[in-house]
Design brief:
By secondary structure, the protein is mostly helical. It has 2 domains: 1-76, Homeodomain-like (Arc Repressor Mutant, subunit A); 79-196, Tetracycline Repressor, domain 2 (Orthogonal Bundle). Helix content is 74%, strand content 0%. The protein contains 9 helices and no strands. Helix 5 (79-95) packs across helix 7 (117-144).
């Protein structure tokens, strides 16, 4: 029978996530993680296996806390409003990101995915989840007439995903509201029905 963890797992995962999110996988040392979590390397490894296991747990937390919850909040809205709300939250998060951490998924896609097949698959799965959210919104909006039918739903969903990725990259170096909203505006305009 497994022993219960003798530390606040939520606090440790949050500290671990913040560390990897800010510095990336390679630049984060075990020393960084022990300093930020207050645990010994042995305790971290006993709980999560190794640095990869820690990173996986941190990435899972980020996906659940950031992306999963945002999708859940937005799915409760009408289709077009859901897409607008999703991007409004992205702009708000980007402008409030004082450390310019960006998006942990985008950062990991750039750092890990090119040379790590396991994390490439994990990150691709998260991007598919976001694309599926956009696809569901577009299909529902095209069905009820609130989203234009000039392009296929899958084409629009992929375009929205691409715009999202671009915004998250731009925000790391130029977190300017006018710039970010200017990138998003044409994509949202594509969604407007002719009489909308």
């Amino acid at each position: 029978m497994a022993r219960p963890r003798e530390f606040d797992e939520e606090a440790v995962l949050e500290a671990t996530m913040q560390c990897f999110w800010r510095f990336g996988y390679e630049a984060t040392s075990v020393k960084d993680l022990t300093e930020r979590t207050g645990l010994t390397a042995a305790s971290l490894y006993n709980a999560y296996g190794d640095k990869r296991g820690l990173f996986q747990a941190a990435l899972d937390r980020y996906v659940d806390e950031s992306i999963g919850r945002r999708i859940q909040r937005c799915e409760a809205l009408p289709p077009l409003e859901a897409i607008h709300a999703f991007f409004e939250e992205i702009v708000r998060r980007s402008l409030n990101d004082r450390q310019h951490k960006g998006c942990m998924i985008v950062n990991s896609a750039m750092e890990m995915a090119p040379h790590d097949a396991e994390f490439q698959k994990i990150i691709a799965g998260v991007l598919v989840r976001i694309e599926d959210f956009f696809l569901g919104c577009v299909m529902a909006g095209q069905s009820d007439g609130t989203i234009a039918q000039s392009l296929r739903a899958d084409v629009l969903a992929r375009h929205l995903l691409g715009v999202l990725m671009g915004v998250r990259v731009l925000a790391r170096v130029r977190s300017d509201r006018v710039l970010l909203e200017g990138v998003i505006a044409p994509a949202l305009a594509l969604l407007q029905p002719p009489n909308g």
